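Render this sequence as a predicted structure.
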Amino acid sequence: GEWFLGAIVIMYLLYPVILPFWKKNHMATFGLILAVYLLFYNKPITNAVGFCTVSSCLMSFAFGMLFMEHREFFTSRAGTAAALLGCLVLYFVKLPISANGADHLFGGCLLIVLTAIGEHLMGYGPAEKLFRTLGALSYPVFLVHHEMLYLLLDHWQPDTVWEVVAFLMAGICVILLAAKLLAMATDIMMKIFHRFFGKILAKNRVMS
């Protein structure tokens, strides 16, 4: 299993606890989560990598919630321009912050930029079809991407820049193929499940 699957389970368990406070005052709740994150910033209470801690994962989760609350603001022209500038600065300038903090900032800025681009492209037929196809595979991709990359790395260690680019392209193809196969296998299993258990449930209804 992957560490982030365990982290997601923890986030889902915490969500019902956070939600009432979020509904009452989401900015104050986000500020409290940010304060907890900063309290343990670069000071993990275990030997876990900083990005894998509960406080770090909760920070990412909370920003996602905040983004959805104020999506129009974040993806406005000004918001997108600021996020794009943030991506460039974080990529090219070494700031006096940890990798954990930089990853959160870069990830947040990149989310805003990609969402804004996606919203503009969704009106175009071919792009919309591509996005919907990839979107349908997003969760299978999430489940298999690490394992597929590890599998590739067992047989291919890229050295030059062009080898890294080729590795990335090959990785994307392998991940998408594995995700599609997983989605197909899941559909087949669910059909079998519904066919088998559907008959049992129908029998129980008749008998009752």
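Summary. The CA atoms of residues 151 and 178 lie 12 Å apart. The longest helix spans residues 161-207.
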